[in-house]
Amino acid sequence: MSQPQRKMSPQDESLWFKIRVALKVDPSTESLRDFIKMQVNRGQVTLEGAVPSAEALHNVQRVVLSVADVVGIDNRLTVAG
After folding, report:
1. How far apart are the first and last CA of the chain?
2. DSSP assignment, residue 52?
3. 36 DSSP β-pair partners
4. Residue 77 neighbours by CB under 8 Å, 6+ apart
5. pLDDT, tens digit (0-9, with 9 covering 90-100), for 13-69
6. Angle 54-66/10-25 helices, nearest 10 degrees?
7. CB-based burial of residue 60 (10 Å sphere; 0-12 exposed, 13-18 middle, 19+ buried)?
8. DSSP labels for 5-26?
């Protein structure tokens, strides 16, 4: 997962790192986090990138929503192939 592309508030930057860690420690998403671009704006998370399956897409969304202070997701992930 690449670094945030725009300057975020300290709260959003902290949330970005919490989500990154959550994706890393969950066995269903640990191999996916480097393929996902993510931005956070006032707790709203935008996800972009390609994942290998619909199940992987669901797992990423589940993990992100499980992080405290996430208020919603703009899920722009696509299933590769």
Report:
1. 20
2. S
3. 49
4. 36, 47, 48, 49, 50, 51, 57, 60, 61
5. 999 999 999 999 999 999 997 889 999 999 999 999 999 999 999 999 999 999 999
6. 130
7. buried
8. SS---HHHHHHHHHHHHHHHHS
Query: From the CB of residue 77, how many other CB atoms can be counted at a distance below 10 Å?
Result: 20
DSSP designation for 78: E
| Structure tokens belonging to residue 80 | 């590769």
Nearest to 37 by CA among 55, 18, 22, 51: 51
Reported as half-sphere exposure (CB side, CA atoms, 13 A), residue 47 has a value of 28
